[in-house]
Amino acid sequence: MRWVLMLLVGLWGATAVAQAPVVVVLIGEARDNAELSAVIAELLLRQNVEAQVESRERFEPEVWLDESSADERSFAFVSVRDRHRAQLYFRGPHGRRFLLRELTLRAGLDEVGRELIARVVETSTVALMSSSEGVTRDEARAELALATEAQTQPAPAPPPSVPVEQPKQAAPREPERRWNMLLGVRALGQWTGADLGARIGLGLEAGARFRTAGWLRIGGRLSAELALPQQLEAEGVDASVLAVPLRIGVDVGSDLGLFFGLSTGVDIEQLSPERTADSELMLARASTELTPTSRAELRYELALSRSLYLALSALIDVPWTAAHYDVQQDGTLKHLATPWRVQPGAVITLGATP
After folding, report:
1. Closest of 240, 187, 253, 185 to residue 214, by C-alpha
2. What domains, with CATH codes, occur in the chain?
3. What is the pLDDT of residues 52-67, one digit of tens each?
C-alpha cells in the first residue's frame, strides 16, 4: 500500500506545475469555428497549457502590441482573411517577445487547414513561454508595417500548374490519426464489504479509441487486475480470498479528457482455507469460482506529454449473482462471509498511446 501512495504523490507532483493560460483570439472566418477551437485547445492541453478562446470582429495591432507588462498570460491572434491566407500574431508572457506568422491554406478551414493553424499556435506559444525565441515590440511593429504594406500590393496569380508552397517555418505535420492505441498499468483500490474489507490490486489495460470529426471519442478497452489476497477470519476459520477481475467494454468521452465506460467480464475468485480452530471442521481444498460482473467507470485523462497520459477513475462493480463463502460442518453449510452486491472503487492508470 505504501508504494501505491508514493506513486500517487510522485505522479501528482510531476503534473502540478501550473502555467498561465493562453488567450486565443479567433478573427475573421475563424470566428465561432468550434472545430478549430477544439483542436487548438487539445494541442495546448497536451503541453499542460489551458486555452481561453475568444472571438473578435477584426485584428487590432494596439491590442497585440500592448505595452502592459503586468499580464503574465500569452496571446495568440488567429486572423483568417480569406480561404487561402491566415495571419497569426503571438505575444509572450508580460509582453517581452513577439512572433508574426503568415500561413497559406490549401482549402480554407478544412481539416488540414485547422490542423496547420493549431500546430503553429502550439509550437509558437510554447516557444515564447519556454525560450527566448521571438522579437522585441519595436521589431514586431516594424514587421507588422512591412506585412501590411505587402498586403496592399496586388499579389500575382500563381501559375495553375504550380502549387502554392507552404512557408518553411510553418510546415504542417501529418494530421493526427483518427485511431489511437492505449496501453497502461493500473493500480486498483476497492471496498468489497465489511466481511472482507478492502481489495488492492495491480493490472494492465489495452484498447483502441476513435476520434470523430468533432469532439466525440469512442473506444473499446480490455483490463485485467490481480488483487492481493484478502484474509478472512470468521467462525474459527482462517482463509484467504484471491480475485482476478477481467473486464472488456466501451468508453465514450470528449476532447476534454472526461470518459464514461461500461464493461462486463468475470471475477476469478479462489477461496483457500488455511486453518481452523474447531476440530469438528474439516478444511476443504481450495475452490475457484467464476462470477459474472459488470462495471461502470467515470474516468478523467490528463495528458502528460504527446504520448503519455495519467487517468483517474471512480468505478462500481456489480456481480450478477450474490457471492458468499461457507464451510461444511456436520453435513450443513456454515456461513463465513458475504461480499457487497455493489462494490465501489478507484483506479489510477499510467499509460501511453504508441
Report:
1. 253
2. 19-170 (no CATH), 179-352 (2.40.160.20)
3. 999 888 888 998 988 8
